[in-house]
Amino acid sequence: xxxxxxxxxxxxxxxxxxxxxxxxxxxxxxxxxxxxxxxxxxxxxxxxxxxxxxxxxxxxxxxxxxxxxxxxxxxxxxxxxxxxxxxxxxxxxxxxxxxxxxxxxxxxxxxxxxxxxxxxxxxxxxxxxxxxxxxxxxxxxxxxxxxxxxxxxxxxxxxxxxxxxxxxxxxxxxxxxxxxxxxxxxxxxxxxxxxxxxxxxxxxxxxxxxxxxxxxxxxxxxxxxxxxxxxxxxxx
Length: 236
Known about the structure:
It holds the Pfam family FSH1. The chain is of the alpha/beta class. It is built from 8 helices and 10 strands. The chain has helices at residues 4-8, 24-31, 36-39, 83-97, 108-121, 146-152, 172-179, 201-222, and strands at residues 13-17, 43-47, 51-52, 68-69, 72-73, 80-81, 102-106, 134-138, 161-166, 186-190. Strand 8, helix 6 (146-152) and strand 9 (161-166) form a beta-alpha-beta unit.
């Protein structure tokens, strides 16, 4: 019993999924813009997507290669290639580097992160790892592929989620639509585009409150006996 309070102080561990044709190293730099007061509350693990970029990256000349992508899509975003391999890769990371409490995703990584709890609930992804407990979604959207949609958003996603919506982000309308798939989403609005934004005073307050709630929830989970519990613009 004497070691329990120290155990309960552990930081929530998030698996971080980077954006399209970027990398773990790039996302670490992007997230690194957040203040230490936030970063000190998080245990973040950054990983590369499984596939080398098959085309030009939007961050060429800003961030050094190599660049990676999680999967490939048609122009309408209704069909995807290598999606099953992507899911297997993420599960493998979770098995090797976890356990994880949640996911942080940006852009393509955010779209993935927001869909994974539903896919996991339906038993079509991440079946060998603990349930995802929380999400931080930056510049996200919903999948359009019918086979993914019917599983990922079959019912509202009931877990703590924090969503960043950029005022000039081309994905903002789809990010707003994504909110409808969550029971009680927390939202940070920022004036930038498709980027991991810096945190102004209001955003910092919202994020700290969210992380404090996560910490309190994890403390309650950790107290359960074993067996009851089932890581200028985008460019700066």
